[in-house]
Amino acid sequence: MTKRDENVSAMLVQKHQLDQSESKLSELDAALNALQQNQESNNNDLDLALADLDMMLDSQGLNSQLAEDIDITQELFDLESSVAQSHAKTTIVPVALLDILDFNGNMNWAEYQQSVEKYALNNHVDLSADPFTTLMSPIQRIELEKRIKDEFTIKNAQCDKYDYLIAGTCGVIGGLIDVLFVGMPGEGKLTKVADSAVDSAVEKFASMCGWQGGKEGGDSTKSAIDYLEDNFKVNYDQTTTFGKNGTDGAVKNLSMKNHHLKSLGHSPDLIGLFFSILNQFTDTSTFISNGQIITIDTNTHELKGGNFVSKIFSGFANWLGHLFSDMAGSSGSQGRGTGIPIPFYNLLLLFDVGEFGQHRQSFATVATKVFEQGYDFRHGVAMAIPVLITELLTRLMWTIKQRLYHKKPWQECIPSASNPELRRMLLVAHGSLCLIDAGDAALKSGGDMVQFLLRTNLIGWARFGTLALKEVYAWHNAGHIDVDAVDEYLDAELKKLMA
Predict the structure, then answer these.
(1) Are the beta carbons of 233 and 318 closer than 8 angstroms?
(2) Which residues of the chain have pLDDT under 70?
(3) CA–CA gap between residue 225 and residue 219 (Å, rounded)
(4) Which residues form a coiled coil (predicted)?
């Protein structure tokens, strides 16, 4: 049995009181009209009686002055007695009093609900009735249903040929930028720009942490990395399978080139944060290798702080500082070095399946080799640039088309991802980018899986995948309530009420 909603019950009783009040007002209007008609009738009868009296006086030869001196008190008393004995019934229907809800300012909610239930019982109010059919008028229900359909239901896109043409063009532009200016890790112009930006970010972060700058004529980035490595030490920074800073053979094929990938604490995402703090608290180190998650014991690592919260913050600070120390490659690496992985990239190492290439290597091994050749966070920043350009260009062109072609007001031209037409255009745009990216990678890789992935824009494919899932969801659930849109509307209304 469904529990009665107390708020709805109160509203149903209030609606009944309102309806009864309106009905009672109609009764009062009818009674007042009847009183007015009776008064007019009595006035007319009195006028006729006075006229008859004047005629009688005239017929008797009496004037009004003499009539005023005649005492008729006894006659009026006799007339009043006869009227009282006649039991004349009024034609006015008595108006009954309204039943009221027992309420006062000292009531608590439970007492108020008891009063509501008592009123409902006395007045036959069904507290289990559907509030939408009971509390709203037919016109209000129609308006509500129309608004829900227009604003809060999932709709399929109704794109025209110009939408597809614009989206495809934006995707081609992004794809050409990806092919011409990103390419392989460390080779494209945008990758070099991203490398420089990451180096600058590492130096700024080190300065915020107290680094005084590098020696004149020296490598300032390596100096900043050295400073961060010294100040943000972690216990999960094993670099080889065997050796002084190794795993005693627990993690196969671990090296300086891939330990940032295989160590889960080095991942710049929620997974990395979780395992970093876990490893620092439990004096362990967690790796992902050959489709397995491996945990080993490490030397004792004492976190700073006098309580649990401060130790958590210390662990977070160590994780963040150590990520920045590895983001631009370690201080001892040659050339560009290998930085930290793209967020969630290390999850690919769980897929230790398949046989690719001449040496029949698994997908996890291929993903590791791709990372070892520079497919790291810095290259991810470079790959994000053509994806971002495609995204912004598509949204800009959609806004311009809505304003100039469809003549919509500016407030309806905001490029929100909830708009089905814009969502479809973004899917087409990023799909075009991915097609160009995949075609270029296939042509230049010569069938080598590692080379193919090195030239693949993983960020673009991730964005295309999320858009594809949204489009499939919208297609499958077309006409259903969009819960996210409802939540967004309710949050906005709540903020207005709280302001």
Answers:
(1) yes
(2) 1-2, 62-71, 75, 83-92, 217, 330-337
(3) 10
(4) 18-45
3-state secondary structure of 302: coil
Candidates 173, 178, 172, 154; CA nearest to 423 is 154
What separation in angstroms does the CA of 439 have from each of 173, 381, 387, 454, 456?
Answer: 15, 22, 16, 13, 9
Q: Helix axis angle, 420-445 relative to 161-181, nearest 10°?
A: 40
Please tell me whether residue 123 adopts helix, strand or coil conformation.
coil
DSSP state of 362: -
Q: What tokens appear for 157 in the block?
A: 């896109």
pLDDT in tens, 460-486: 999 999 999 999 988 888 778 878 778
DSSP code of 295?
E
pLDDT of residue 63: 67
Q: What are phi and psi of 455, to 5 degrees?
A: -95, 0
Q: Under 8 Å CB-to-CB from 480, ≥6 apart: which residues?
A: 153, 154
Q: Cα–Cα distance between 296 and 247 in angstroms, integer? A: 7
Residue partners of 96: CB distance under 8 A and separation at least 6:
none
Burial class (CB in 10 A: 0-12, 13-18, 19+), 499: exposed
Cα–Cα dist 326/486, whole Å? 43
Read off φ and ψ for residue 439, nearest 5 degrees. Answer: -65, -45
Count of other CB atoms within 10 angstroms of residue 418: 15
| DSSP character at residue 455 | T
pLDDT of residue 334: 44
Scan for tokens 């109609």, then name that residue: 26
Torsion of CA 423, 424, 430, 433, to 10 degrees: -160
H helix or E strand, kind and range, residue 106: none
Contact 49, 171 (CB under 8 A): no
Sign, CA torsion 425/426/431/436: positive
CB atoms within 10 A of CB 88: 8
Q: Which two tokens stand for residue 151?
A: 């604003």
**Nearest of 222, 261, 212 to residue 377 by alpha carbon:** 261
Identify the pLDDT of residue 96: 79
Paired sense of beta strands 284-289 and 292-297, if any: antiparallel
pLDDT at residue 386, rounded to an integer: 97
Q: Answer positive or negative: Cα dihedral of 264, 268, 273, 277.
A: positive
Residue 153 has φ and ψ, to the nearest 5°, of -120, 150
Amino acid identity of residue 142, one-letter, is: I
Q: Distance (Å, rounded) from C-alpha 153 to C-alpha 158?
A: 15
Tens of pLDDT, residues 266-287: 999 999 999 999 999 888 999 9
